[in-house]
Amino acid sequence: MSRNQSDLGVSGILFGIIAALIILIGANSFVIINPGQAGVLSILGKARDGALLEGIHFKPPLISAVDVYDVTVQKFEVPAQSSTRDLQELTARFAINFRLDPLKVVEIRRTQGTLENLVSKVIAPQTQESFKIAAAVRTVEESITKRAELKQDFDIALDQRLQKYGIIVLDTSVIDLTFSAEFARAVEDKQIAEQRAQRAIYIAQEAEQQAQADINRAKGKAEAQRLLAETLRAQGGTLVLQKEAIEAWKEGGAQMPKVLVTGGQSNSGVPFLFNLGNLDQAVD
């Protein structure tokens, strides 16, 4: 191999190295932040002010790094426990929907570091404190029966506490709300007592209604008898007796007579009915 060829080979290697360095430096001079992300630029380990929002950004090559944070809606379930106003233990589990404020990710990077640290060191303890605030002003029974009010107070307290950390609370849900076994037994005994009391009230009301119905029926029957007596005393009352005799025949309450004898000379007299079969038997 000639000297010229050797020089060309060395030059080619050097050119390749230089080209690779240029490509490497060029690739490390820019960073792309996608939608739903925010970046924090650190140069020689020091975070620079101003978050990197979506788009392409220049960064010093080789001596800088960019930490990218997800600023879309995220969800974490956090347990909490508190004592109520009547000193009962109340346990809850909350689902918290939140997102990071893109303009405060630099502060989050400096104070908390990673999202995992943010959840464990900020969101979890602040959830616990907010639940204590909401539960402490209520009895355990009020916390259960007025669950919406408890959640409202919790939301207000949590939002105020997390806002200063660059955390925007979008929504919370109470997944579970439990109380001590002693209170559970007390609630069950109270429900049983209430059911028995309601049953006793129902029975008393039913008896009262039945008694009133009997009174009404007795009054109705007495009134009917009074009206009937007045009708019988009035002129034409015998017609009523004739009508009842005919209805008795129709309903089968009496045997069909073989002889019909009317009383007196008036056609309006009450009919007297005789069964000749019975008379024949009597003669025999």
Which SSEs are present, and which pair or pack?
Blueprint: H1 3-27, E1 30-33, E2 37-43, E3 46-47, E4 55-58, E5 64-70, E6 74-83, E7 89-100, H2 105-111, H3 115-136, H4 140-145, H5 147-163, E8 167-179, H6 181-233, H7 237-251, E9 259-262, E10 271-274, H8 276-283
Antiparallel strand pairs: 1-4, 2-3, 2-5, 6-7, 7-8, 9-10
Protein name: Prohibitin family protein
Domain Band: 28-191
Pfam families: Band_7
Word description of this protein:
With 284 residues, the protein is of the alpha+beta class. Helices cover 54% and strands 24% of the residues. It has eight helices and ten strands. The strands form four sheets. It has a three-stranded antiparallel β-sheet with strand order 3-2-5. Strands 6-7-8 form a three-stranded antiparallel β-sheet. Strand 9 and strand 10 form a beta hairpin. The radius of gyration is 49 Å and the shape is elongated. The C terminus is likely disordered. This is Prohibitin family protein. InterPro entries: Band_7 (IPR001107), Band_7/SPFH_dom_sf (IPR036013), Prohibitin (IPR000163). Keywords: Membrane, Transmembrane, Transmembrane helix. It comes from Roseofilum acuticapitatum BLCC-M154.
